[in-house]
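Review the following:
>
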Amino acid sequence: MQPDDTQTRDRDRAKGAINPWMVLGLWTVPLLLSTFETLMFASAAGRPVALWRAFVGEAPQWYGWVAFTPAIVALGRRFPLRRPFRVGSVFAHISASLVASFLVAIADALVNDWIGRSRAGLLVSTSNWFISTLPATTVAYFAIVGFSYALDNAARLRERDRISAELAAQLREAQLGALRMQLQPHFLFNSLNAIMALVRDQDTARAVRALSLLSDVLRTTMNAGDAYETTLGHEIEFVRRYLEIEQVRFGDRLRVTVDVPRELHDARVPTFMLQPFVENSLKHGVLRERAGNEITIGARAVNGSLTLIVRDDGRGLPANGSASDGVGISNARARIERMYGGVARLSVQNATDPHGAVVEISLPFRTTAGDVS
């Protein structure tokens, strides 16, 4: 359930809350500059002022805003100055600005009377301070309001970015889950069809062997859980068992070659990535000739990129390209796009040496120990 506007606003404001130490530090900067200015003018006029007197004399008009800042921020949120402007909000801030300016003037008059910098009475001194500093105090008041709005807006943007990132991650997980659920029944039905063919041929021994292999494959599938990546070594082992099921059915007519260097077995790859392409080679490419055909599975790593290769020496892709548009390959394209974006690449094309089809999948080369450059 989505939070209501009030809850969202409260959360944004909490994240954009004013840090009191930050406020103190910000107002200390003009206080020090003002103190230095007072010392310089006093020295130039031949009436040097002690550093502590200059600092204390200037402090009220700057540190007074430190005390007022939380109240001004709260007032700015209670009466927002956003279009369309409301007369009540404008009046509230003008009134608050005048009150804040008057209180700062009183503090200035009291402190300067205490340190002996003022010769006039308290009322006259307060009036003088109020009138002379009114432009600066008005600017200071509305600067605080504007600064608080900037912090609130930044907090809202961060919160929206966080929510957008969470929604994008959830959508990605849902899409990958849907693709995976589509892939697993597809693989299962094809395996069962192969076993049914053995049963129809009354080849009991080979059918039992195929069922045993299928049990191993399904166990691997179930053990994978919700993981979307696995190691290349595990993926190769899974494909070997799948091909064993097919070899039980076709015997020596199906030849398999695996050329994957041992040092690449820890590379991270999408779970069940190779099986759809091997299945596609079986369906469209190999076992078309009486003498049988060969499937070669390979991998290589170059310049931080891992390339997986599935090659067959069958008839190659049909002229209409239907072999490259199956469920498994379509899923694979969608999966790597969502998992790796533009970094990954998938190509399915006819082989030229001498015939058949070649699938190449290029992924970022990452191992279980981290990224590999």
About this structure: Residues 122-200 form the longest helix (79 residues). Residues 5-165 form one domain. The longest strand covers residues 293-302. Confidence is low (pLDDT under 50) at residues 1-15.
